[in-house]
Amino acid sequence: MSTNTWTRKDLLSIQDLSVAEINIVLDTAAAFKQVGERTIKKVPALRGKTMVNLFVEPSTRTRTSFELAAKRLSADVINIDASASSLVKGETLKDTALNLQALNADIIVIRHSAAGAPHFLAPQLRASVVNAGDGAHEHPTQALLDAFTIREKKGTIAGLKITILGDILYSRVARSNIWLLNKLGAHVTLAGPSTLLPRVFEEFGCRVTYDIEEAIADADVINLLRIQHERQRKTAFPSLGEYTAMFGLNKERFARTKPDALIMHPGPINRGVEIDSEVADCSRSVILEQVTNGLAVRMAALFLCAGGS
Amino acid sequence: MKSFLIKNGRVVDPANQVDAVRDVFIVDGQIAATAANPTVIDATGKIVTPGLIDLHVHLREPGRGDKETIETGTLCAARGGFTSVVCMPNTTPPADNNGTIAFIKQRAAAAAHVNVFPTGAITKELKGEELAPIGSLKKAGVVAITDDGRCVQNNELMRRAVQYAKMFDLPVMDHCQDYNLVADGVAHEGYWSAVLGLRGWPAIGEDMIVARNILIAELTDWYIHCQHISSAGSVALIREAKRRGVKISGEACPHHFTLTDECLKNYDANFKMNPPLRSERDRDAIIEGLADGTLECIGSDHAPHCQHEKEVEFDHAPFGILGLETELSLSLELVRKKVLTWTQLIEKFTVNPARLLRLAKGTLSVGADADVTIIDPACEWTYDVAQSASKSRNSPFHGWPLRGKAITTIVGGKIVWSE
Fold this sequence. Notes:
The complex is a heterodimer of chains A (about 300) and B (about 425). By secondary structure, chain A is an alpha/beta fold. Chain A has eleven helices and nine strands. In chain A, helix 1 packs across helix 11 and helix 5 packs across helix 6. The longest helix of chain B has 17 residues. Chain B is globular, with a radius of gyration of 20 Å. The interface between A and B is medium-sized, with 27 and 19 residues.
């Protein structure tokens, strides 16, 4: 595999990426992670470039992570919050993006509640488009930072048994993780309530189970997903209490996991719902390291898409 | 008025069980047995059929002349080989009152290129709550009632509507969609909706209402026509009910027997319509339903939308695509693939919709209105939506290489379109 074959203007979805491209992002992120550990955390890689954070769906952590990533690369950053933008005055997404391009924005990082919004914009713009989450479709940088974290902790991803647990149907994190982990040779198990995990996900190359005990028993990594209240059309299970009882990672279940199983969560966590507080804070939980690694992965993504030669 | 001799074409006239090379005469706007000094149209190597009928179009007038007008929509029809169109009542205001029907008829008389047959609403404002004045609508000239674009959810109300419409000899057409099951779905619930993260529009959302309609048609012994059938389950339900003699019928749209949900992978809203493109299995079932007569009509569901409305996020785009100009060519593919004979295809565009809606159309019998379509079955062409007669551009078939095309469209003895 060549060391640098990244030729993409945009980062839209993991499904499109080759294994080589995924590894380029992860390797580039490793280098940027070291930068974050220095006293002077800034490099000039994107000096003179402008990045726009176009967040048409609310987010704090991903937006902040992209903003900090761009600043560490010396780019200028503008944050656009949809509730304050022209989109509420009836301007179309396309026009908003074209206006940003007219201001010579080099990178548009977009978070949108509609699946495919970044894919709709990318071919119409000279600027790089980076998908920061589109509806229930994909969240590529989340999957990359998850993989980065697993690789860092476990050395490799190939051959690992990885369980993704929770609301799969409405989760872009699940989809991006499934594609990425399968490409890198992991064995992916999906578990959750049947109403949030249709059998069709088996066609993604995953094992689907509704038995949480079995799903976590021999997992090397357990990735818990947040219950996406905002994307569920109807209550897919009777109550949060029942969800916790049936699928929550509590102390008893945690005690039956492999002794070296990693506990992951894309955040924000709902303590006492999908995860017990003590499990979230235990030594095998890498939830905060995921946040740290997210910064490095996003630096890599921005640099690769817009950094030029 | 000019008289014509359409000479030496292969005449496919299912109403008269004709499929043979022969001449067709037109005198004074009617099909005639012979003519003195007619203008000769050489149809050698061409197919001559009764004027085609599309029983499912949206002309958008009144109210949305920015999308389409009766004039532009019927020009699309003429160019596509259609001499009659049946327009849906979801206009602004909706066609739930005599005044709107009178307006449509008046506009059609002034500007239409082909015959326009309006439908009226089943319920006031298509809200599914109170019956529209169905008897008065019939008097005003509607050929059927439907809440197309919407679906009456209340089964008791639907039963009452069908029972009431029967008294006026008025068939009922229905857009089959269970709102609870479909909710805000935008794409067929299946592999591709899962991959693309699009909210699912499950096939059962259609099947449930088709089943409901079968039960109501059986109970009332009256005609319910299920519009734009898209799922394998619905085809099976209709097939079984017809076997029992229930007055139920079904229509297929070219996009549903040509495309599948895989087409959504670029999130192009020109592939977004309601009901949505479904799986290969569903598409094959539609084709089977056409072949065995379960689906006896083909309609375009021509649904123009402005470019700026479609050039948005997939979730936010309105449902619907253009259809009149590509419908015949896409359907001819079924003849080429030997799914249908010429007679079987042409009856779905002529005698079947005419019989369903009691139109004195769809035949080349002597004395009938001289609505005639001449088709060049071999003509190879590419659909360029920029050249469309429509005011809109929302076709998924832009740039498609097509084979076969209407080359002359005659309405009431007048050539309204000719290449």
